[in-house]
Amino acid sequence: MAEAGIEIQRYRVAGSLIPFQQFSLQLQNFFGISRFIYFIVLLVWVFVKVIELIGIILTQDGFCGFLLWYIRKKENTNMTKRIVLFCAGGMSTSLLVTKMRMAASAIGKDYSIDAYGLTQVDQYGPEADCILLGPQVRYAAKDIQKKFPNTPLEGIDMRVYGTMDGKGAIEIARRLLND
Fold first, then answer.
1. Active-site positions?
2. What's domain 81-177's superfamily in CATH?
3. How far apart are CA 141 and CA 155, in angstroms?
Protein backbone atom coordinates (compact mmCIF):
# COMPACT_ATOMS: atom_id res chain seq x y z
CA MET A 1 0.00 0.00 0.00
CA ALA A 2 2.94 2.32 0.63
CA GLU A 3 3.97 1.81 -2.99
CA ALA A 4 0.52 3.00 -4.14
CA GLY A 5 1.04 6.20 -2.12
CA ILE A 6 4.34 6.78 -3.91
CA GLU A 7 2.63 6.23 -7.27
CA ILE A 8 -0.06 8.77 -6.40
CA GLN A 9 2.54 11.35 -5.39
CA ARG A 10 4.46 10.75 -8.60
CA TYR A 11 1.44 11.56 -10.81
CA ARG A 12 0.12 14.62 -9.01
CA VAL A 13 -0.48 17.67 -11.21
CA ALA A 14 -1.05 21.01 -9.45
CA GLY A 15 -2.34 19.29 -6.33
CA SER A 16 -4.86 17.00 -8.05
CA LEU A 17 -4.67 13.91 -10.18
CA ILE A 18 -5.52 13.95 -13.86
CA PRO A 19 -8.76 11.90 -14.22
CA PHE A 20 -7.08 9.33 -16.44
CA GLN A 21 -4.30 8.86 -13.93
CA GLN A 22 -6.80 8.36 -11.12
CA PHE A 23 -8.48 5.64 -13.14
CA SER A 24 -5.21 3.97 -14.14
CA LEU A 25 -3.89 4.03 -10.56
CA GLN A 26 -7.12 2.40 -9.38
CA LEU A 27 -6.59 -0.29 -12.01
CA GLN A 28 -3.00 -0.78 -10.88
CA ASN A 29 -3.99 -1.11 -7.25
CA PHE A 30 -7.05 -3.30 -7.85
CA PHE A 31 -5.75 -5.64 -10.53
CA GLY A 32 -2.02 -5.31 -9.92
CA ILE A 33 -1.45 -4.21 -13.53
CA SER A 34 2.21 -3.88 -14.41
CA ARG A 35 3.89 -0.65 -15.42
CA PHE A 36 4.14 -1.88 -19.02
CA ILE A 37 0.36 -2.29 -19.28
CA TYR A 38 -0.07 1.12 -17.65
CA PHE A 39 2.25 2.62 -20.27
CA ILE A 40 0.24 1.00 -23.10
CA VAL A 41 -3.04 2.32 -21.66
CA LEU A 42 -1.48 5.78 -21.39
CA LEU A 43 -0.37 5.66 -25.03
CA VAL A 44 -3.87 4.66 -26.13
CA TRP A 45 -5.35 7.55 -24.14
CA VAL A 46 -2.92 10.04 -25.78
CA PHE A 47 -3.73 8.57 -29.19
CA VAL A 48 -7.46 9.08 -28.58
CA LYS A 49 -6.89 12.72 -27.59
CA VAL A 50 -4.84 13.34 -30.76
CA ILE A 51 -7.61 11.79 -32.86
CA GLU A 52 -10.14 14.09 -31.15
CA LEU A 53 -8.00 17.10 -32.04
CA ILE A 54 -7.76 15.96 -35.65
CA GLY A 55 -11.53 15.49 -35.66
CA ILE A 56 -11.98 19.09 -34.57
CA ILE A 57 -9.76 20.25 -37.43
CA LEU A 58 -11.58 18.04 -39.93
CA THR A 59 -15.05 19.24 -38.97
CA GLN A 60 -14.35 22.96 -39.30
CA ASP A 61 -14.31 23.31 -43.10
CA GLY A 62 -13.22 19.83 -44.03
CA PHE A 63 -9.62 18.78 -44.36
CA CYS A 64 -9.20 20.49 -47.74
CA GLY A 65 -10.57 23.74 -46.34
CA PHE A 66 -8.15 23.55 -43.46
CA LEU A 67 -5.22 22.88 -45.80
CA LEU A 68 -6.17 25.77 -48.08
CA TRP A 69 -6.45 28.11 -45.12
CA TYR A 70 -3.08 26.97 -43.80
CA ILE A 71 -1.32 27.29 -47.18
CA ARG A 72 -2.77 30.75 -47.78
CA LYS A 73 -1.78 31.82 -44.30
CA LYS A 74 1.80 30.60 -44.81
CA GLU A 75 2.14 32.17 -48.24
CA ASN A 76 0.24 35.30 -47.19
CA THR A 77 -0.74 35.73 -50.82
CA ASN A 78 -4.10 35.38 -52.51
CA MET A 79 -5.78 35.73 -49.14
CA THR A 80 -9.49 36.21 -49.45
CA LYS A 81 -10.39 39.80 -48.75
CA ARG A 82 -12.83 40.14 -45.90
CA ILE A 83 -15.63 42.68 -46.32
CA VAL A 84 -17.69 43.27 -43.20
CA LEU A 85 -20.98 45.16 -43.20
CA PHE A 86 -22.47 46.62 -40.05
CA CYS A 87 -26.05 47.76 -39.67
CA ALA A 88 -28.45 48.33 -36.79
CA GLY A 89 -29.11 44.66 -36.10
CA GLY A 90 -27.25 42.67 -38.75
CA MET A 91 -30.47 41.43 -40.32
CA SER A 92 -31.30 44.15 -42.81
CA THR A 93 -28.02 43.69 -44.67
CA SER A 94 -28.35 39.92 -45.13
CA LEU A 95 -30.08 40.31 -48.51
CA LEU A 96 -27.46 42.84 -49.61
CA VAL A 97 -24.70 40.41 -48.58
CA THR A 98 -26.26 37.70 -50.77
CA LYS A 99 -26.42 40.07 -53.72
CA MET A 100 -22.83 41.22 -53.09
CA ARG A 101 -21.59 37.61 -53.08
CA MET A 102 -23.31 36.99 -56.41
CA ALA A 103 -21.87 40.18 -57.88
CA ALA A 104 -18.37 39.34 -56.64
CA SER A 105 -18.47 35.85 -58.11
CA ALA A 106 -19.76 37.29 -61.41
CA ILE A 107 -16.60 39.37 -61.73
CA GLY A 108 -14.37 36.55 -60.52
CA LYS A 109 -13.53 37.91 -57.09
CA ASP A 110 -13.20 35.73 -54.01
CA TYR A 111 -14.41 37.90 -51.15
CA SER A 112 -15.59 36.84 -47.74
CA ILE A 113 -18.64 39.03 -47.09
CA ASP A 114 -20.56 39.02 -43.82
CA ALA A 115 -23.01 41.28 -42.01
CA TYR A 116 -23.27 41.95 -38.28
CA GLY A 117 -25.02 44.29 -35.92
CA LEU A 118 -23.21 47.42 -34.83
CA THR A 119 -22.90 45.99 -31.33
CA GLN A 120 -20.50 43.36 -32.72
CA VAL A 121 -18.04 45.84 -34.22
CA ASP A 122 -15.39 45.10 -31.58
CA GLN A 123 -15.65 41.39 -32.28
CA TYR A 124 -15.59 41.37 -36.10
CA GLY A 125 -13.99 44.72 -36.96
CA PRO A 126 -10.39 43.60 -36.41
CA GLU A 127 -10.80 40.76 -38.94
CA ALA A 128 -12.06 43.07 -41.70
CA ASP A 129 -10.05 44.26 -44.67
CA CYS A 130 -12.86 46.71 -45.44
CA ILE A 131 -15.83 47.92 -43.40
CA LEU A 132 -19.11 49.08 -44.92
CA LEU A 133 -21.79 50.72 -42.81
CA GLY A 134 -25.50 50.65 -43.48
CA PRO A 135 -27.11 54.11 -43.85
CA GLN A 136 -28.84 53.77 -40.49
CA VAL A 137 -25.52 53.49 -38.61
CA ARG A 138 -23.36 55.94 -40.55
CA TYR A 139 -23.33 58.16 -37.47
CA ALA A 140 -20.85 55.71 -35.90
CA ALA A 141 -18.27 55.99 -38.71
CA LYS A 142 -15.89 58.29 -36.80
CA ASP A 143 -15.91 56.09 -33.70
CA ILE A 144 -15.30 52.94 -35.71
CA GLN A 145 -12.52 54.60 -37.70
CA LYS A 146 -10.82 55.53 -34.43
CA LYS A 147 -10.98 51.89 -33.32
CA PHE A 148 -9.61 50.58 -36.63
CA PRO A 149 -7.49 53.36 -38.17
CA ASN A 150 -5.83 51.05 -40.72
CA THR A 151 -9.08 49.57 -42.04
CA PRO A 152 -10.82 51.45 -44.86
CA LEU A 153 -14.39 52.34 -43.95
CA GLU A 154 -17.31 53.92 -45.77
CA GLY A 155 -21.05 54.20 -45.43
CA ILE A 156 -23.12 52.52 -48.12
CA ASP A 157 -25.00 54.98 -50.30
CA MET A 158 -28.72 55.06 -49.47
CA ARG A 159 -29.68 54.37 -53.08
CA VAL A 160 -27.37 51.32 -53.28
CA TYR A 161 -28.64 50.06 -49.93
CA GLY A 162 -32.32 50.76 -50.64
CA THR A 163 -32.29 48.98 -54.00
CA MET A 164 -30.10 46.16 -52.62
CA ASP A 165 -27.62 46.80 -55.43
CA GLY A 166 -24.97 44.16 -54.76
CA LYS A 167 -22.86 45.30 -57.71
CA GLY A 168 -22.84 48.89 -56.46
CA ALA A 169 -21.85 47.79 -52.94
CA ILE A 170 -19.04 45.61 -54.35
CA GLU A 171 -17.77 48.60 -56.32
CA ILE A 172 -17.59 50.63 -53.10
CA ALA A 173 -15.69 47.81 -51.40
CA ARG A 174 -13.33 47.34 -54.36
CA ARG A 175 -12.53 51.04 -54.32
CA LEU A 176 -11.76 50.87 -50.60
CA LEU A 177 -9.61 47.75 -51.08
CA ASN A 178 -7.82 49.22 -54.14
CA ASP A 179 -8.78 46.05 -55.98
1. 87
2. Response regulator (3.40.50.2300)
3. 7
